[in-house]
Automatic annotation (TrEMBL):
Assigned keywords, A-Z: Signal
Protein name: Glycine/betaine ABC transporter substrate-binding protein
Organism: Sulfuriferula plumbiphila
Listed InterPro entries: ModA/WtpA
GO molecular-function terms, A-Z: molybdate ion binding
Stretch forming the signal peptide: 1-25
A Gene Ontology BP annotation from the UniProt entry: molybdate ion transport
Length: 335
């Protein structure tokens, strides 16, 4: 590996550790040095100025970007009335969705807890009885609702994890997220295979979107492009695989650690809306892959009625209007 590529990979892995802490940390291979943060704190999660924290009484607020952050865990664990595990593809939409739901169902005001981790990781937490450890903190919370891609929801129903029918509600398309000035001059998917173009891509191990991205890469450049992005560049350090859905991709772009990354179009739209120096390149329809999002109530849920109300709400005109702010489209079986 070239020295520059090795340095980039080391820095990227260091940033990734801010999100997922291994059971046993190691400093092997670290060639850098500890230094104060070089970037403004507001570019680091959590974003939305605390709007994603639905608890009404928040007590002492102690969030330190880069150091003490639990960006994908929202609300109060003390006796919630509705617990939602939602794939992190629309973490940014959850604040307005929860607020609108609470207006229609005031009995849940301040009593909703939700997590926005990748769908595969959420399933691992469910298989672990709802117990999860982040850093030095361990807690247990069992979901009433699970929301992810339609195929994953149907598979979880078949496995006996969820109950009832899968309820689809919106769709989403892929886009190439880039820094606003587009330093690598990306114009389309085929550019991602070029030597020297550094990428941030979803990890196939727990992010379902990786399967859809691979399909789009194959449409644009055949098996060779898919292999270049997800195998060759991973090996030589030019592709960073994310640990926490796509929240890391804009972070890596703003830090100068990557030149591009494929995400859902909605995520790039959100980044632009909050004022981050992020833009996107549209992927043509014949190369794109559309996701269908669905949800279902978890088998044995502690609050099944609340879960059903949330599942129904996601198909409502109110929820649809919120999703459309970020480029989602209402699901239609005819599509």
């Amino acid at each position: 590996m070239k020295p520059a590529a090795k340095h980039t990979l080391s820095a990227a892995l260091g940033a990734a550790l801010l999100f997922v802490l291994p059971a046993c940390a190691t400093t092997a291979g670290w060639g850098g040095k500890v230094q104060p943060p070089q970037y403004k704190g507001e570019i680091f999660p959590p974003w939305q100025q605390g709007a994603n924290a639905p608890a009404t009484i928040k007590g002492l607020q102690f969030t330190v970007p880069e150091v003490n952050v639990l960006a994908d865990f929202h609300g109060n664990l003390n006796n919630p009335k509705l617990v939602i595990f939602v794939a992190g593809n629309y973490y940014f939409a959850m604040a307005p969705l929860v607020a609108a739901f609470e207006q229609e169902h005031p009995q849940y005001q301040g009593r909703i807890y939700f997590e926005t981790l990748p769908p595969g990781i959420l399933l691992k937490q469910m298989h672990a009885g709802g117990t999860i450890t982040v850093g030095n903190m361990t807690w247990t919370v069992k979901p009433d609702v699970y929301a992810a891609g339609l195929k994953k929801i149907r598979a979880a129903i078949a496995d006996g994890i969820l109950t009832g029918a899968a309820v689809p509600y919106v769709t989403n398309d892929l886009a190439i997220m880039i820094p606003k000035n587009n330093p690598a001059h990306i114009t389309g998917l085929t550019d991602l295979g070029k030597p020297g173009v550094r990428l941030s891509m979803p990890n196939p191990e727990w992010e379902g979107v990786a399967r859809q991205i691979k399909a789009s890469l194959a449409k644009a450049g055949g098996a060779a492009l898919e292999k270049s992005v997800y195998e060759d560049k991973v090996k030589d350090g030019q592709t960073i695989l994310t640990h926490v859905h796509h929240r890391q991709t804009p972070l890596f772009l703003m830090q100068g650690l990557a030149d591009a990354g494929v995400t859902w179009k909605s995520e790039a739209i959100f980044q632009e809306q909050v004022g981050h120096p992020i833009s996107n390149i549209a992927i043509p329809a014949d190369q794109n892959t559309t996701a269908i999002y669905a949800s279902a109530v978890v088998k044995g849920a502690a609050h099944p009625e609340a879960g059903k109300e949330w599942v129904g709400f996601l198909r409502s005109p109110t929820a649809r209007a919120i999703f459309e702010r970020y480029g989602f489209r209402a699901y239609s079986a005819a599509r």
